[in-house]
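Database export, one record per block. Field names are fixed; values are copied verbatim from the stored entry.
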Amino acid sequence: MIPALVVLTVLAVVEAVSPDGDAGSASPLLATPTASPSPVVTEAPRGAGQNVDIPSAELPAGGAFPVTGNGTWHVVPGTTPQAGTGRVYTYTVEVEDGIVVPEGEQAYATAVDATLTDPRSWVGSGQIAVRRIDTGVPDFRVSLSAQMTIRGLCGYSLRYEASCWKSDIGRVLINGSRWVRGAAAFEGQLGLYRQYAINHEVGHVFDNPHVPCPETGGLAPIMMQQSFGTANDYLAQLTEENPQGTQIPRDGKVCRPNAWPYPQGAVTPAG
């Protein structure tokens, strides 16, 4: 059996409005940049019409990030050997045309590879394997994208910056604003947040829905919406105003941030 977090039955994640679901139309998969690098800002613009005040969901202060891009992506060259056992999923690492990646595209690709091949990631289930390719058609694309591209494709009903999985174009869209700034719940641990963002969105590739914090003081499940916080009461406010396909209880539980599906390492086969 696949562990509980790897739910292989397609569950509704409220595709039209969820920042971790599907919205918008397809974009070309590969293209040559046609514009100069996007502008960057040093402070994030607030969303208009925000109707839920969740301090932990605000984008933290920090460095400049890409605001707009071309809406097309290019593959970052590079491949990896297979990691894990079970069904093999291939992926590409991609960057939106017209944006500047703060540490460089290869650094972004290295972070994606290191995360997805780690035994604490989805390969730790013993049921999933991943392999990076840079030619052909992958099972999913891990695509660093500009803030406004994300809002257009992922939706912006929650009025907070998010990333998402777009199944209709096979693309995990990583929000450049969050990649640079992280999330308040991670208390400045940017590397940990980046691992979380990758693992969480790729978790949707495997049809995992959002979940609440199960126990105060415990590690947050990877499918908790930790970009917005690790307190169920906060997430309940968000989901009541903007349904996300999973009911979060107002039970006062608060978890600790966590970047991994299997934080204790790979699952040991029974017997």
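Remark 1: Residues 227 and 242 are 16 Å apart (CA to CA).
Remark 2: Residues 190-205 form the longest helix (16 residues).
End of record.
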